[in-house]
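Here's what a typical entry looks like (tRNA (adenine(58)-N(1))-methyltransferase):
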Amino acid sequence: MLLTDPSKKISFNRCIRDGDLVIVYERHDSMKAVKVCETSVLQNRFGSFKHSDWIGKPFGSKVFSNKKGFVYLLAPTPELWTLVLSHRTQILYIADISFVIMYLEIVPGCVVLESGTGSGSLTTSLARAVAPTGHVYTFDFHEHRAASAREDFERTGIDSLVTVGVRDIQGEGFPDELSGLADSVFLDLPQPWLAIPSAGKMLKQDGVLCSFSPCIEQVQRSCETLRSNFTDIRTFEILLRTYEVREWRINCSKIDEGSSIAPPPCKRRQTLGEESARDSPNSPAVMARPSAEAKGHTGYLTFARLKCIS
């Protein structure tokens, strides 16, 4: 995923090897992470897929089963990993993650502190953003959850960029040895206002903090605490709407003259052959409509910048 350790790292520029982690793509809503083992076989509704047939193929390859079904073998990018990882907690998805990384001004070489780790969805994207010379320090109070996240980071090859700690940040704050080293801090806690004073001590001058909260009451309490040492306090809610764009066949002969239903207007230049095709009773049309499965509210993102000491 990230080119930091050539002996372990998955790179898009090389072929799949024994022991690699790949994302097996069946369709947009059916994917799974699989570790390649030369003697293993993947069984799914499309048939049997021998891992030995995958070795030596580049990422993105289309491979066939014994029944001539097929899947795609994709590299485990942070975006795909977010869709297939084990949900130990509620996770952040791509819309929130991309917004967080941009507003926290995270670039290669940054030092980022995160609490809590949870399922590691955001951590994986943070690691790619700070690579190859930055580092992410992530903390979770739950020891088993932290251990599981550590294993996931080893599987995806980002363990050299991430340090996982077991710590109650709300009660104890961040470790003193990280004081003044962080370019940015991310909080995903039930009571983030308890950790804000410690986060302020960790940040460099002009550093940025983000707090993710599902309830507006948490946001209000956090903002009250932020006003003492932070400025430029802003809160956002990211609502993502996806569309289905595909070809539909419309039976024009069944549309009454007085009906409000009509074929969509053509948006491109037509050839002479297309003009006659458009008049046929079952002509295809490209239509767009909102997806039936639309994600609603996930949480509120509150950003604030540490005040500079004159």
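Residues 67 and 81 are 28 Å apart (CA to CA).

More examples are in the samples folder.
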